[in-house]
Amino acid sequence: MTPPPAAPNGRPDSGPVAVVFGGPSAEHDVSIVSGLAIARALAEGDRPVDLVLVDLERRWWWIPIAELGAPPDPARYDEPAELGAEGPLTAGEAVDRLARRASPPVVFIALHGPFGEDGTIQGLLEAAGLVYTGSGVGASAIGMDKPRFKRLVRGAGLPVVDWLEISRRRWLAEPTAVLAELEEFAAAHGEPRLMVKPAALGSSVGMTLAHGPAERGAALELAFRFDERALVERYLAGARELEVAVIGNEPSRLEAYGPGEVWPGREFYDYEAKYTPGLSKTTPRAELPAAMAARLRELAKATYAAVGAAGFARVDFLAVGEAVFVSEINTIPGFTPISLFPAMAATGGYDFRSVCERIVELALERAAERARPPLRPADLPRGVR
Known catalytic residue: 314? Predict the structure, then answer.
């Protein structure tokens, strides 16, 4: 992967950025709000910015930059052509358009959920040799897949909440056996309530708190509307929801900010609680003993390093008393007005624009470190040609 050419002033970090937002996932609307906020911040810093929308049908559109002056209403983007957008293009056509520019932009991926956060778009951009923000293919895929993420971080010695993974195929074939397994799992932990969620989705979409046996089947059915697999977790009564922002590439030089805390305005932090203004309460500075706050930051950095994350991420925790559990990693956290990632970064001196700029810089640094001449057969040792 080759870094983009330097801008006319000689500084590659002042070059163009294409902010890609929207996407074909249930987090489409949240991504639009995040992407527009990021693009506005970068444009206000005099950086050339393209607005690239991926719609729900996976079609790509170039949105007029004048849209940055409009209210960030996701409904405006239901019909991109009515906004004067160029398109639609296929993914291949769009990526080729970006790669063929005289000064290829850094692609700022602001896509939440599947397609954007699971390694799919990262693979497309890698194939085209484009520089992009955030984690690479492998770390993105692991971070998005909750059961695989749990297995990896538990293997690294980090604490996670006990879970079961249930496939849709098995549920359809033997629902009675599945429900019996869930009952045994709940009884083993002395708690009838279980958290049920799609295995690879974010923003609490498709997530249910099943209070007892009668609700578990419906909770699985909802999760399977969004994924082929469901994650069923032990419920931690009274757990605090804590989050840490991590910024950086090299594990030895990571920055961690927070912990922040969330107080859901509903029984748990579901989609409505996350994105309805005023319903939930958050703070970028949780009231914690200094030692516990430091421990959470170290756990966040360890989690980030374990999955091979890069650029930026948010690591979420559940805490009951002094017991702390890694919940998940969000390799493309929200940049909405109520998102905790930029608020926690602000406690470390980053304003919204500077954290967006730092993420672009880290993308360029990572690309420069990975850049190397093509390997040719003549370069290989004789025995492996």
Answer: yes
